[in-house]
From TrEMBL:
SUPFAM superfamilies: Cytidine deaminase-like
Name of this chain's protein: Nucleoside deaminase
InterPro entries linked: CMP_dCMP_dom (IPR002125), Cytidine_deaminase-like (IPR016193)
Lineage: superkingdom: Bacteria
Family annotation (PROSITE patterns): CYT_DCMP_DEAMINASES_2 (PS51747)
Ranges where the CMP/dCMP-type deaminase domain occurs: 4-121
Length: 146
């Protein structure tokens, strides 16, 4: 359930996205807030500026949360973002321990405005393969000899 406080913080994330455009960057902005609504960190998309396909604001904030917050605090934060996180960012958010995400535009709404943002080709996956060989280093790390 999105509250008026959520809407206010989401508007701030949208403002970050609007500011990104004035800087020549892509129109995506995010912020991370604690349970009291205090902004802990904010970021905008710098993919082109940094020549880095991972420079999405959601992923930047997920990295920040994983580095700077203990797991209990991370779990109590909310990420406010101007657009629904992509699959790459979803993975980072999940691994960071961030507790909640509130977004403005859905992926479908974004694609309607910018069809190119939904034009990623499917990548074929083959596997699993070489189980016994792949298992050894993983087992050595997670199941040390006793």
């Amino acid at each position: 359930m999105i509250t008026p406080a959520d809407e206010a913080l989401l508007r701030r994330a949208i403002g970050i996205a609007a500011r990104a455009v004035t800087l020549g960057d892509a129109p995506y902005g995010s912020l991370l807030a604690n349970p009291d609504g205090i902004v802990l960190a904010a970021a905008h998309n710098t993919v082109r500026r940094d020549d880095d396909i991972t420079a999405h604001p959601e992923l930047k904030l997920a990295r920040w949360a994983a580095r700077e917050l203990d797991p209990d605090m991370a779990a109590r934060t909310t990420l406010y973002t101007s657009c629904q996180p992509c699959g790459m960012c979803e993975g980072g958010i999940l691994r960071s321990g961030i507790g909640r995400v509130v977004y403005a535009l859905s992926t479908e709404q974004l694609v309607a405005l910018n069809p190119q943002s939904g034009a990623w080709p499917a990548v074929p996956y083959d596997g699993p393969a070489l189980h016994d060989e792949a298992r050894d280093p993983v087992a050595a790390y997670y199941l040390p000899a006793r």
